[in-house]
Amino acid sequence: MSLKASRFLALLLLVALPAAAQQPLPNVVILATGGTIAGTGATSTTTVGYTAAKIGVEALIDAVPELKKVANVKGEQVMQIASENMNNEAWLKLAKRVNALLAQPDVDGVVITHGTDTIEETAYFLDLVVKSDKPVVVVGAMRPSTAISADGPINLYNAVILAGSKDAIGKGVLVCLNDQINAAREVTKSNTATADTFRTPELGFLGYMQDNKAHFYRESTRRHTAKSEFDVSQLDKLPQVDIVYGYANANRVAVDAFVAAGAKGIVNAGVGDGSLADPVKAALIDARKKGVLVVRSARAGNGIVARNGEVNDDQTDFVVSDTLTAQKARILLMLALTKTTDTKEIQRIFYSY
Ligand code: DAS
To answer: Is residue 146 in some structural domain?
Structure first.
């Protein structure tokens, strides 16, 4: 090859290489709902007693200029609430917006900023109704935006990287705070105040965020998102399902009150392996006879609630929650009741999701 030709080839490579190295940035939409991540406190050391849901989505994005290096980001303010006030209507609105965005070919992933109190519930609801394999990442913060070492900015930065990551495709809805990646089905808020509060106690994290990259080590074996049979696109409300908490000396008042108020389903967070005090069991049997669906969960929060273990579920026509906590079982039962009231079919659903 002549000197001239080899110089031309070297020049070509110099120009071509950097371009090839610069993959196009992913398009990520941030849907803001409120919470501490959007919270403000009176001073930089106020980490309790602050006001949640004060700062808008554009301010959240502007506070992290590094986002521009990792994704093309757009923001929408879907609502502005502290998440203890999250409800079924808000979930339906959020789910419909997420599905509309993910159906767009120019959207690669969605991040939802959210209060930490009910992140685990919103994430699981979306895990069951999002009709796409594209990443959906729910993120929050344990310190308000005005606090020293506020965790919101780095959590938002990591969430956007994760939502734009090809490795996150098909993993289901993810909850990512404190550099840890959790699956929606099992994640739970385990501490009232610390930055490492989100845990998947026994089944473990899916992976970690480190050095601007998602690192996955496992994935869920249960149905979710694109493989889910649930569709809320035509729904504007969900069946009323309530939770009764088990404890020593429990009585039947709460069960009877929920039935009288028209609950279509009751989840019992039982002691031990979903055990029921006699008065509670009698009340739940009466409820079932009136057509209310009953699911036995466990306040322990981990482990399998065994069918026909502490209660003869075949005889009482109850359903068991498998390993779902009561707050997650409530969500799955609500969605199951949009499709069927057959307890065998509902038990199949609890063993599938
Ligand atoms: N009240 C809490 C909430 O909105 C604040 C937070 O931790 O995000 O869930």
So the answer is: yes
List pLDDT tens digits, range 130-167.
Answer: 999 999 999 999 998 888 899 999 999 999 999 999 99
Rounded-to-integer distance, Cα 238 and Cα 154, Å: 35
CA of 116 from ligand 1 middle (Å) equals 5
Residues at CB less than 6 angstroms from ligand 1: 35-36, 52, 82-84, 115-117, 140
55 and 96 fall within a common domain: yes
Measured in Å, residue 265 CA sits from the centre of ligand 1 at: 27
Count: domains in the chain = 2
Mutate to test the pocket of ligand 1, among 60, 84, 151 (most ligand atoms within 8 A of CB): 84
Average pLDDT of the residues in 70-86: 97
Atom of ligand 1 nearest to the CA of 36: 8
How far is it, in rounded angstroms, from Cα 351 to Cα 332?
11
Locate the ligand 1 atom nearest the alpha carbon of residue 37 and give its number: 8
Nearest CA to ligand 1 atom 3: 115
Residue whose Cα lies nearest atom 1 of ligand 1: it is 82
Nearest partner of 283 among 300, 303, 263, judged by Cα: 263
In this structure, are 128 and 194 located in the same domain? yes
- What is the residue whose two structure tokens read 């939770």? 243
End-to-end CA distance of the chain: 63
**Ligand 1 mean position to 298 CA, how many Å?**
25
pTM over 0.85: yes
- Does some domain include residue 6? no
For residues 171 and 137, is the Cβ–Cβ distance under 8 A?
no
| 316 conformational bin, left if phi > 0, alpha if psi -120 to 50, beta if neither | alpha
Active site residues: 36
Q: Which two tokens stand for residue 283?
A: 């009340």
Q: What distance in Å separates the CA atoms of residue 26 and residue 88, rounded to the nearest whole number?
A: 31
Both tokens of 33, joined, read 């709902």
Expressed as residue numbers, the domain containing 347 is: 241-352
